[in-house]
UniProtKB/TrEMBL annotation:
Signal sequence coordinates: none
Occurrences of domain ApeI dehydratase-like (ranges): 14-109
Native species: Yersinia rohdei
Domain of life: Bacteria
Pfam families per UniProt: ApeI-like (PF22818)
Entries under InterPro entries matching the protein: ApeI-like, Dehydrase_ECs4332_prd, HotDog_dom_sf
Name assigned to this protein: FabA-like domain protein
């Protein structure tokens, strides 16, 4: 399995989406990424950002650059996380953050998309 379990999702207008996710232990991304203490790789987190933004907010331009990304807390098997996506259409910027327990920032970033 490549994607987490979607528990719930909320879309506000055409620019904001919030998705509650469960990260099952059998996600392919956990396999071999530190066998003793598996964590979700950053590349998986970015992959999901682009997947869900295109799925929920409509097809957006492709990623041009990652302007800022911070990984502050590892995401681990069985974590329940909230992914917040905010698409600033006029600036061609996509902001995201993964929250654990609805308030602790695990990772966040700002992505520039092609015009």
């Amino acid at each position: 399995m490549m994607f987490p379990v979607v528990i719930s999702q909320q879309i506000t207008g055409d620019h904001l989406a919030t998705i509650d996710l469960l990260l099952p232990a059998d996600l392919l991304w956990f396999s071999g990424h530190f066998p003793v203490c598996p964590i979700l790789p950053g590349v998986a987190q970015l992959n999901w950002v682009m997947h869900y933004v295109n799925e929920l907010l409509g097809p957006l331009p492709v990623m041009k650059s990652i302007d800022v990304v911070k990984f502050q807390r590892p995401l681990m098997p069985e974590d329940k996380v909230t992914l917040v996506l905010n698409w600033e259409r006029t600036k061609h910027k996509l902001m995201f953050k993964y929250l654990v327990h609805g308030e602790i920032t695990a990772s966040s970033g700002k992505i520039s998309l092609c015009q």
